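ingest -> validate -> predict -> emit
validate: passed (alphabet ok, no gaps, 63 aa)
predict: started
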Amino acid sequence: MKNVVRALRTQADISQAALAEAMGVSRQTINSIETGRYLPSLPLAIALARYFETTVEETFFDA
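emit:
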């Protein structure tokens, strides 16, 4: 599954550490999500989408 978390984070000018703190996860978790090595739980995916004011479907999608 692909995602645009890195692009959204970069556009918002926020660090991985700051996003991780806002989501209540580690920076390594954010890095793993961005590189596609980790598929977040549904609650985390929803939280990320809400944080960036987008939908889960726009943030995470099949390639």
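Strands lie at 2-3, 60-61.
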